[in-house]
Amino acid sequence: MMETITSKHTLQAVPVTQVQFTDQFWTSKIEINRTKTLAQCFRQCEETNRIRNFEVAGGLNTGDFDGIFFNDSDVYKVVEGAAHILASNRDPAIETQLDQWIAKFAAAQQADGYLNTYYTLVEPDKRWTDLPVMHELYCAGHLFEAAVAHYRSTGKCSLLDIATKFADYIDSVFGPGGKSGTPGHQEIELALVKLYEVTDEKRYLDLAAFFIDQRGQSGSDYSQDHVPVRQQSEIVGHAVRAMYLYAGVADVARYTGDEDLFACMDRIWKDVTLRKMYITGGIGPSGHNEGFTVPYDLPNETAYAETCAAIGMVLWSHRMFLLHGRSEYIDVLEQSLYNGLLSGVSLDGDNFFYTNPLSSHGQHHRQPWFGCACCPTNVVRFIPQVGGYFYASTDSSLWVNLYASNQATVSMGEQMVNIHQESNYPWQGWTKLTLEPDKTNDFQLCLRQPNWAKQVGLKLNGQILQITSNSNGYLEITRAWRAGDVVEVNFDMSVERIIANPQAKANNGRLALRRGPLVYCLEATDNDGSVRDIALPRNSPLKAKFEPNLLDGVVVLQGPANRRIAADWGTELYKTVSLDQETQITAIPYFAWDNRESGQMTVWLPESTILTEPKLQPSIASQGRPSASHVFGQLSAAIDGILPASSADQTHPKFTWWDKKGTQEWICLTFNEPVQISESAVYWFDDTGFGECRPPESWWLEWDNGGQWQPVKNPSKYGLQLDGFNSVTFDPVTTQQLRIVVELQDNLSSGLLEWLLN
User: Which of 130, 254, 392, 731 could be disulfide-bonded to 399 (CB atoms 3.0-4.6 Å)?
Assistant: First the structure.
């Protein structure tokens, strides 16, 4: 049996209920989350029958189960988000909504405490028979987290009673002497610890440890079940599952003092942060397993970097800080928070990224919802609890981890300290903290010095202090603090150029821009319509400028760069080198991209135009407006002037007729004025090994002759070769419309990557 450790020296996070933001950055995002994101999630849970499933399971409605078998978890995450919102804003409408939903949860709960709408309605006799796949314990975990948040925010026990009844039932089924098994999707582990924290029921902590120690049975690394947790040394498998597991492991280690778990966490932390994490704090490069591959495999265009994984990285990083009290963990937390996480939701709060690439041709966009809606519902629960990451304390120390204008009340043993923080973070590095302890007393104030802050200015009551950060990365001031004491800290926010380890081959010869906690990117709309032909020399001067009317107010980076001149290759094999064209660039914070018109984006900029993406000189086709008989993909991709790497280029925007097969289809260009055309070139798309698009069975060109479509005369060969342009010449035509007509192969579709006209 484990013994819980308690100590006045143990770090405790300051609850989100004790932090109230007064700044523009987080206050705005929390309000948008309340008014837009939460409303969207409420509506989607109703419209997609996630709530009706509870009604049917509870006998309040009729019908069948609808949706994915783990849809209950989305509802619980929305409830958790709403509960955290109530901690700072007791919105009667939200509270009423939650009361109504909780009543439906209570109705759906079985007499023995079991609660899962899928199994109740579809497979009532198969409880706990497929733990690796069916997510029963995952759903239960999100219920427990929601219940704890609801209780802490409202003081009501209605949902907590449902949760503890279910947890007691699970405890009666699993554990030493009971049923064993490994949950496929981790979550129950950290959730049980939260239940333990509010109930002081140690059985829940013991059960969390039991589930952790069950791992290593199947040999599958997808869900971190390849070896026992205590023997694990590298991050593998599904990124979100890994984060939830290790967050739970860190929780158990913190309460039990289990040295083996401490050591395991340290090993895995080094593996992910030193070899497998994007500069944005995103993790999990592969869409194949939604997770990790080999060290330094960090592609940009195809980066998976799921929003949920970035949230998980914040959760785990915070717990690692509570274990060790070192700034390196908050540095990673901040990196993930301001970049990989915030990018997951639009500025207006109702569109979401599931994946977060670091480069795009313009085809990657946020969506209002997903069939698997884990990311929107994770965002809605995370944003309102961000205040819980700002401060921590022991009986004798107060720790400031993050910076923003806010008011907080911190408990330090028997002492209470009110903090008033003033800051324009993340745009400026200056912060003023006014401390109001309830009595004059000695304690240590620990101010995190971010890893990006190379120079620090520090004042106490107007007097300059000469203090350097300790080995833990914190500036420590120990004194008898009095009400009204003022500490000012100023972190230099210079523009940094970041390069990657050469083993991260995707970024060789490239650099990224960072200022303060924010990673920057170039978007086409700010840079004359394209960014992937731009190079930024290392010595190019860059200036930071606040733009109050851009993207809700952001600091942009501006300066000179080089642009590769588009070449007109025609039939030539070689050309004389063209001089680069000087251009002015504007970089925006990565989290704010894709909030305007579509276009290219990139984080990593080549230092030389040699590494830029070749761009084709505009042809007559670029003057036309495309239309098609059927569109799947990006219609404009057919004339975007981007040279594909091959017909199988999955990073290139593409137009296809999918899922039309064996039919006659067309794509047409319409011009404002008649144009003369005598040559057409097509670059076919082929996704052999991935999908069912191939070059068509045959194709031909037709032109609009006074309202009549006619084939062009005397065409050369209509080619079907891959990995290059298929050029066809014909007698000149003068027209306002020209189209490609294709006969698709039986049982196959088709598409094209680029279309040129001359």
Answer: 392
